[in-house]
Specification:
Length: 312
């Protein structure tokens, strides 16, 4: 009996997939991207657009336009200039941003642990899936076995149960672009009845940009920015270094805005298996201190989604 071929190296599979779609890599071609976006929550659908111009690493411009929410963001010389129509980032905009972060979703992080690699199907239908874990979050990250292109991701506190809590990201309809490739369609499903569908309408090599393309938007806030900030410290509750829930068999998920000093500026419950306890848990979390992120030694504010499972 012939020996079976060795299992693929999981980290290498993911790194190659990220590299195939990394339009913002050093030496990449300047581009303009325009996409139509549909946001669905239950029976309600909202349509909007996302646009991005990219000149070089660290110099790009993003625009989100939706009924009830607009954002204009310019990144230049290590600084982020941002103007939003709302103080807090709506949950669906958070998930849209995660969906668009294709390269970051596939590139292994410093705290990512590869659990195992699975190969499914055969021939052109073969899929290679890498099972990873970062802290308590499990991910099943899959690529096309023939091309190596990103295919889909399932992510959650336990991807074998509680489907309503999971995030599912899907990428398809790939088209070549300046030596790389990029999906023409992106899909998100999660948190019960929430869905996001992105259709890329235009992706072109930009020969030049308007003179004020990367000028700060009028009335924008200013903050230090870097693609890979350094993180120090840990989650520290207001009653000690551990989180004393006191709740059993409860699953709850929060969206947070964290200040440069690590304090909570805004919080929203995304999902809860026991809504009657939401206020009590939220009250505790408003006194929580989160890790501090820094860019070149300067503390920066950030946003995050935190999932917690108690009693399991």
């Amino acid at each position: 009996m012939a020996d079976e071929p060795p299992a693929p190296d999981g980290a290498a599979v993911l790194s190659r997939a990220a590299g195939l779609v990394d339009l913002q890599a050093l030496g990449g071609a300047p581009f303009f991207l325009l996409a139509n976006v549909s946001l669905r929550e239950g029976n309600k659908t909202v349509d909007g657009v996302f646009a991005m111009t990219w000149a070089s690493p660290g110099q790009y411009h993003r625009v989100f336009r939706f009924p009830g929410f607009e954002a204009n963001e310019v990144f230049a010389d290590g600084t982020m200039y941002r103007k939003r129509s709302t103080e807090a980032l709506p949950l669906m905009m958070w998930e849209l941003d995660q969906l668009l972060s294709l390269t970051a979703n596939y590139r292994p992080g410093p705290h990512s642990k590869v659990r195992r690699v699975q190969t499914e199907g055969a021939g052109s239908g073969q899929t290679v899936c890498v099972l990873t874990q970062v802290e308590l979050i499990d991910s099943r990250i899959c690529v096309n076995g023939a091309t190596g292109e990103p295919s889909f991701i399932d992510r959650g506190t336990d991807i074998s149960r509680a489907p309503s809590m999971h995030e599912h990201f899907e990428y398809s309809d790939y088209q070549p672009f300046e030596g790389r490739t990029f999906p023409g369609k992106m899909l998100f499903r999660g948190w019960g009845g929430r869905e996001i569908e992105v259709h890329v309408q235009k992706l072109i090599h930009a020969q030049s940009f308007p003179e004020n393309e990367f000028a700060p938007p009028k009335g924008s806030s200013r903050a230090h920015f870097c693609e890979n900030p350094e993180t120090s410290g840990e989650v520290r509750g207001n009653t000690g270094n551990t989180i004393p829930f006191g709740f059993t068999d409860m699953e709850i998920d929060f969206y947070f805005q964290v200040s440069p000093a690590g304090g909570v500026q805004y919080a929203q419950v995304v999902y809860s298996s026991d809504p009657l306890k939401n206020n009590e848990v939220m009250h505790w979390f408003l006194g929580t201190h989160f890790p501090i992120k820094t860019c070149s030694g300067t503390p920066i504010g950030y946003e995050m989604l935190l999932r917690l499972v108690a009693g399991h």
